[in-house]
Amino acid sequence: MAGKIVAYQRQAMTILRSVFAVLLGYLVFALSGFALFRISGHDPHSSDSLSFMIVSVVYGAFFAALAGFVAALIGGRFEIEHSLAVAALIAAVGAASLLMSASGSSVWTQIAALLVMAPTAMGGGFLRSRMIHRTE
């Protein structure tokens, strides 16, 4: 009986670790985006110069990849799956924001999240996976 309890506790800790990894990974992405727009003084839901939009998308892609990498690292196993969960969160929030956008507002940040940043989060997990399997 005690063996089953220990096994359930271990399984629960593994699940909690995975949830924590995905949430922390997403926070890396979300907080970096919040900081960019807050510090720059730009509104993420308005039109902007092409140069700022390009810099923002590159910046967002970097932090999305880092978010996927962090989730894969903290998750400890199933690296691709953890980064997929972060990518799914990025895409879900982007899609929800897109659907809730006011008519006539700019949606470039949401489109970039769906088409660039969510897939890039997967790339971060893939990179972590490659690093692990290269050393084995």
How is this fold's topology laid out?
Blueprint lengths: L1 H39 L9 H26 L3 H22 L7 H28 L1
* Percentage of residues in helical conformation: over 70%
What can be said about the biggest beta sheet?
A: none
Roughly what fraction of the amino acids lie in strands? under 5%
- Which spans have pLDDT < 50 for at least 5 consecutive residues? none
Based on Cα principal axes, name the global outline.
Answer: elongated
**H/E element sequence:** HHHH
* β-strand number: 0
End-to-end span in angstroms? 36 Å
Cα gyration radius (Å): 17 Å
The helix count comes to 4
Structural class: mainly alpha
Task: Give the overall pLDDT as a whole number.
Answer: 91
Features:
single chain; 136 residues; mainly alpha; 85% helix; 0% strand
Give a structural overview.
By secondary structure, the protein is mainly α. Helices cover 85% and strands 0% of the residues. The protein contains 4 helices and no strands. Helix 1 packs antiparallel against helix 2, helix 1 packs across helix 3 and helix 3 packs antiparallel against helix 4.
